[in-house]
Amino acid sequence: RSGKTELGAFLATVWLLGKEYFRDTPVWKWVEPLPVPQPPTSVRGVGLTADTSRNSVWEKLMGTTEHAPMFPPNEVKKPSEHEMTVEFKCLSKYHTKSADAKPKTHGAVSVDLAWLDEEADFEILRMNEQRPVSKEGKILVTAPPYDDVGTSNHPWIADYIDKWRNVDPDIGVIHLSSINNPYTSDIEKRRM
Q1: What is the 8-class DSSP label of residue 53?
Q2: 26: left (phi over 0), alpha (psi -120 to 50) or beta
C-alpha cells in the first residue's frame, strides 16, 4: 500500500473545491503551488474495475466506517452512490468511471481533471486525455512506485516518465508522501 488513492482523492477534492477553500489550513503549503482552476470544476475519477471504482476510489472520497470522507460532507450538495456522482455547493461536479468499461463510454463529458487511479489500458488513457475542458485541464495518474512501470498492453506510464526525464514541459512527475498527508487517517497510515 502506497497511499496513492488517498493522494489522488485529496487532489480531486482540491480541484473540486478550489485552492481558496484550503487557505489557512495545514495543507495550504501543498495546495498553494498547484495549478487549480476556480470552481465550479468537473473531475472524473477512473478506477481499474467496477469493484475498485466503488470499493477504493469512491470510498476514499465519500468515507467509510474506517476513515473519514475526503469530500467534506458540509460541501456536498447532491451525492448519488448508485451513479457514483457528487454535486457540490460550489457547483463543482465529480463522477466515477470504470476502466473495464468500453473505452467509448469514457467520452461525451468534458472535465477539468481526469484522475486515473492505476495504469489503465492505453485506449482508456486516450479517451480520458480528450476530456479536459481546456489546455489548462490536467490528467492525474496515481500509480504505485513500481520498478516495472508499464503494466498495461501499451506501457504508457513508462512513456510519460521517459518524456518527463527528457524535460517535456507538459509532463510532471510528483512523488508525495502519504504518511505526511493530514487527510489520511491514522488507521490508514498504520496499514501502509
Answers
A1: I
A2: alpha
**pLDDT tens digit string along 88-114?**
999 999 999 898 888 777 776 789 999
Q: Considering just the CA atoms, what is the radius of gyration of the chain in Å?
A: 16
C-alpha torsion angle, residues 117, 27, 38, 91 (rounded to 10):
70
pTM of the model: 0.82
The segments of the chain whose pLDDT lies below 70 read 1-2, 108, 133-135, 145-154, 174-179, 181-184, 192
40: preceding bond cis by omega (within 30 degrees): yes
* Cell digits of residue 83: 451513479
End-to-end CA distance of the chain: give it in Å, rounded: 5
Upper half-sphere CA count for residue 147 (Cβ side, 13 Å): 0
